[in-house]
Design a protein that fits this description.
mainly alpha; two-stranded antiparallel sheet; 2 strands
Length: 131
């Protein structure tokens, strides 16, 4: 078998200060190698940046097209105008959003009415004071 040398920092010949200095130098070397300035993926080529921007633009266009189709299909199905349907969709999160869209309080079947906004289940959503 091959005899392995003991690392310098394990040899008993050095005092504590010398060992601490050796460790400090080793940690400095590791820190320099792992610094964010020197990581290769921060230096992305123009081609990759353009491709990433193109993907983001296509994703946003797809999301906008999907939203437009949902609004159009919902308006067609409910018999509302497209702007009423857009306000109806925007009032979905909570009653504050419905009030901001000027759709609250809303009766069942009207734009802005969601069952989850009707606290007392009487057919009127986002009442100022539920009965």
């Amino acid at each position: 078998m091959k005899d392995f040398k003991k690392p310098k920092w394990r040899s008993g010949n050095k005092n504590a200060d010398e060992r601490a200095d050796d460790l400090k130098k080793r940690f400095e070397g590791v820190s320099k190698r792992s610094s964010f300035r020197h990581v290769s993926y921060y230096h992305v080529s123009r081609r990759r940046k353009r491709a990433a921007i193109a993907r983001q633009v296509l994703m946003m266009a797809g999301l906008l097209l999907t939203l437009a189709l949902v609004i159009y299909a919902g308006a067609y199905y409910k018999g509302w105008r497209w702007d009423e349907m857009a306000r109806h969709v925007a009032s979905f999160p909570n009653c504050s959003a419905a009030r901001a869209m000027r759709l609250a309080p809303a009766k069942g079947g009207e734009p802005g009415y969601y069952l989850r906004h009707d606290a007392d289940q009487d057919g009127i959503s986002c009442e100022p004071f539920p009965r």
